[in-house]
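Researcher: Next entry in the queue.
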Amino acid sequence: MHVTTGVVPVIGALYGTKSLVVGVLTHEFHSLVFALIYAGLLTLLPRWWRTTWIGTAGVGAVWGAVLWLVAAGLVMPIWLNLVGIATPVPNLNPNSLLAHLLWGTVLAVGIQVSRRWFVS
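Model: Structure for this entry, 120 residues:
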């Protein structure tokens, strides 16, 4: 993501430092939290959406798009403005959308693969 958007150090700025390392660590932490929320959301959906490759991938892609719109597009720029980094609101970067769609889809595939390996 850093190579295509260059914003990872800015993620660190949310926590007080424009550091690539802090940006990577906090972004990974956010990814983990949002992945757990995604897993919880899957439990609320009808069986087909939870158990099929297409269903979980679709839900994962939609979840990635929601995160791009809400977390990356609205919450993050507002937070950055609050810590003194001027950012347009909303900040809807198409490269970031692609990255979040890919993240959601890979998350869904990971869930399907882990089910086949660990829950059989």
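Model: The chain has a mean pLDDT of 91.
Researcher: Noted, moving on.
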